[in-house]
Amino acid sequence: MTTEIYLDGNATTAVLPAAMSAAIDAMGQRFGNPSSTHATGLKAKAMLDQARACAVRLLGVGDGRLMFNSGATEGIQTSVLSALVALRERQARGEVIGNLLVYGATEHKAVPESLAHWNRLLGLNLTLHKLPVDASGAHDLALLRQVAGSAALICTMAANNETGVVSDLDGIEAVIMQTGSAAYWMVDCVQALGKLTLDLSATRIDYAPFSGHKLYAPKGVGMLYVRAGAPFTPLIMGGGQESGQRSGTENMSGIAALGVVLAALERGDTFRSHDALWRFRARLADSLRAALPGIVFNNPFDKALPTTLNFSVPGLSSRELMDVFDAAQVRVSAGSACSSAKAAPSYVLDAMGVPLWRSAGAIRMSFGPLTDEATIAAACARIERCGAALRASCLIASESAAVPHDGLLQLGVEGACSWLLLDAASGSCVVIDPLPEMTSRIASYVRCQNYRVLAVVGTAPDADRNSLVDALGEHYVADAVDEFGWPAAALAVLALEGGAAAPAIALGAQVLASLATDAGKASRAYLLGAADGNRLPAASVRFAFSAGSRDEAVRAVSAPRTLLCPTRDVQNQFCTSMMRHSAATLTAEAQLPTPSDLQLDSAALEAFLQANPDTVLIDVREAYEFAATAAPGPGGRVAHSVPLSRLTGQASGWLQEDQRPLVFFCRSGNRSMKATQCLRRLGHHRAYSLSGGLALAA
Ligand code: PLP
After folding, report:
1. Residue 341 has pLDDT above 80, yes or no
2. What is the DSSP letter of 103?
3. Is the beta carbon of 71 within 6 A of some atom in ligand 1?
4. Predicted TM-score (pTM) of this structure
5. Which three-class secondary structure string do you get for 511-535?
6. Which of 48, 510, 525, 602 is the most buried (most CB within 10 A)?
């Protein structure tokens, strides 16, 4: 099995083996409660004291406080609460306090969210003020100088989680000191631990939260530093643990593990040197440049932690990049971990003024200081593999023309889609309803495979087809066209059912007929199939393309085996059949099994395959994911690759076959479920989806 390469260290890290042993020891041999006064408790207390003493030395805590807690989000709450309670008390005493809660524009969301929450809860009504950063991600110190005098609390981070950009803490401190600002100052040190040297009590910093899981300790343990003399209010009251600063029985296994990590940092014999980490990043960057032409790095390497890369690739979305890396078992993230499911533009990159395509398409690749040479070398090889897979799929430019793909291709954007009808044998294709967002994707796809585009047609008149026609250049070969983009010199007139006739063009061995709909010619539909003389027999497999599958013209020519391919596909159905619109089918549809009945988990799949050895396993991930995958299909079996975007072209074949069982799979189970539902709607009774996808199919 191919091992995964984990390059998402800024989201979390694995636990250091020695830390894991310490955690197990704290749950086994040394399970005591440090508050107990018997020997079992005293042993636990000794471990707790040792971990704290190490943290105190390592971070330069001096006379300040250092308490263990559940992580940085808690540390941020405690800091904000402490500062705001003190401000409220000062206000109550009649002191003048600043009216601004200043925070860096690229702070982790925990900071502005906590500020807003406690400001509201405590009724302070101070103003949240976002401090801008420059193009390199550095805080705007000139603006800080302007507001420092009115600031009640200033929150900045030591290093950013998305870009690794290291803040100029000395510069910020100088501004605070020079302006005589009375503001409290919190510095989120989560990404700095183990990567930057900290001597906290030698600075003006009042609060510094840390998190264990970003540096090889488990999740759910962290620390908070509070400067000697800085106001402090406990967030959690109870049994008085942590000297009354943070009640609740301590997370001893977490603290034991964190203690081991801190001790390793102090000894300096476990983690890679700064220089080694710089070299690792340079090697990854070189591989990325070679594999992904046009790549743009969004973080200035000389101002960022050596463990973080953040990049975008023209023409590729973060979803596509994530998918291809994931297929190659390289774990990276899109923007920050919290927003990666949404693939929304990154607010961090937005704040740096990065153009939208880069901010929405950004990938973060980050590694921890335990990473070794072999992992970096393996990562570089996989990056190369990803580049080759994307080139073969024409998603990035290649010097040599790719082998032409054949059949139907659906390219969707939020419920609308374009169709490409590709005939590899004749090297010709037709585009139906080109979406503006897809212009460059379609043009580079056509160029890369050296297709001749016979027509760019629309289901509506005068839609914007010109931008695609321009982008296609010499690959577009139609002469005069009507308002739907249909070539005036259509080659043939086909006879359709009911005596209707339609102009048609040849697309290799098939023909494409143009059907004027009866709604005052306001729309068109197109019918693709294999002609028999001047007829398009209803008994053959045909595909009807229209804006909506209920178009009269489409209904008139639809036979049971015609697949309806809408260019509006809000429900992600890919294709339906005319049967769908009959009363009988509506009843049948109501009887479709529920999604859970269409799913097989890996154990059920094994049993299913035993019972049904003729099952066809189909990988519906896109071709570049399939090509980047090093491992075979689930359970080591060979699978067919039929990307979801090409499902329609294949569906009729599966329907014709003797309904052999089909099991679709993908990365996580979403796309395979869509394919399964599509086939079920079309009347296939034995289509299933592998639930949880390859991610769970060990
Ligand atoms: N601050 C920064 C910069 C982070 O990267 C994170 C984690 O993503 C946090 C705060 C929150 O830390 P925790 O997961 O320990 O609550």
Report:
1. no
2. E
3. yes
4. 0.92
5. EEEEEECCCCCCCEEEEEECCECCE
6. 525
